[in-house]
């Protein structure tokens, strides 16, 4: 679970996850273009690839190869595990 928190601690990685949540199954090139055009993040492909590796190691991103392309998909399973561990309670409500 520590890897998940480490992965989520970086704002760029959270932005990548937001992009995958909006449009799942993107290639590295597509992610780079969206980060540049929508978020004005001028990251190199290598930098984005390193961020994706951290997200993949944490289980938040899974990849699928198809021919010469590698598609990245959001996996929210680790987030669900966090939510189940610490359920959200509202003020004045019993857990």
Automatic annotation (TrEMBL):
Gene3D superfamilies: Winged helix-like DNA-binding domain superfamily/Winged helix DNA-binding domain (1.10.10.10). GO terms for molecular function: DNA binding; DNA-binding transcription factor activity. Signal peptide: none annotated. It comes from the Bacteria. Keywords: DNA-binding, Transcription, Transcription regulation. Residues 1-94 form the HTH arsR-type domain. Pfam families: HTH_20. PANTHER family: TRANSCRIPTIONAL REGULATOR, ARSR FAMILY, TRANSCRIPTIONAL REPRESSOR SDPR. This is Transcriptional regulator. It comes from Acrocarpospora phusangensis.
């Amino acid at each position: 679970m520590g890897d998940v928190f480490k992965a989520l601690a970086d704002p760029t990685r959270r932005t990548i996850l937001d992009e995958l949540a909006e449009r799942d199954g993107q290639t590295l090139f597509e992610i780079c273009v969206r980060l540049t055009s929508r978020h004005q993040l001028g990251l190199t492909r290598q930098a984005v690839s390193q961020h994706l590796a951290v997200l993949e190691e944490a289980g938040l991103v899974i990849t699928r190869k198809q021919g010469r392309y590698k598609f990245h998909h959001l996996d929210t399973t680790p987030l669900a595990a966090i939510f189940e561990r610490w359920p959200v309670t509202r003020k004045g409500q019993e857990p």
